[in-house]
Amino acid sequence: MGRADDWLSQAEHNLNHARHSLEMGDYAWACFAAHQAAEAALKGAHLRRGTIAWGHATTWLLTQLCSEPNPELLDCARYLDRQYIPSRYPDAHPAGPAAANYTQKEAVEAVRCAEAILHFCKSL
């Protein structure tokens, strides 16, 4: 419906950006881009179903899309929501810039979660 494919395409681009950031060692930005990929994918899935979804909370977007989401996907959405703000703002951490407060392990998990949500959304 309408621009659903554009949102899903943008989700792919955001996910590629997350992967590249991960490869470069920019773990905070990889986490943020992964969140953006999942958000765009979920908004595209909503549009395919004929609904318009607003907001940035992937957990909310997922639960509005399906009444009983897969528990693993729900955990992924929750994980990604925790990346949305602190991955960008230094004052979300006790000290140092956001970039110094993220690890490779966190970024790998964020990318994995975004991949899972995008795959789910494309399968609808």
Pick out its properties:
single chain, 124 residues, globular
Outline the fold blueprint.
Elements: H1 4-24, H2 27-48, H3 58-65, H4 71-81, H5 104-123
Helix pairs in contact: 1-2, 1-5, 2-3, 2-5, 3-4, 4-5
In brief, what are we looking at here?
This protein is mostly helical and 124 residues long. Helices cover 66% and strands 0% of the residues.
Please write the string of helix (H) and strand (E) elements. HHHHH
Radius of gyration: 14 Å
Overall shape? globular
Largest sheet: none
Parts with pLDDT < 50 across at least 5 consecutive residues: none
Overall pLDDT, averaged? Answer: 96
**Strand residues, percent:** under 5%
- For the termini, the CA-CA separation is 13 Å
Give the helix/strand class.
Answer: mainly alpha
Portion of residues within helices:
55-70%
| Tally of DSSP β-strands | 0
* Tally of helical segments: 5
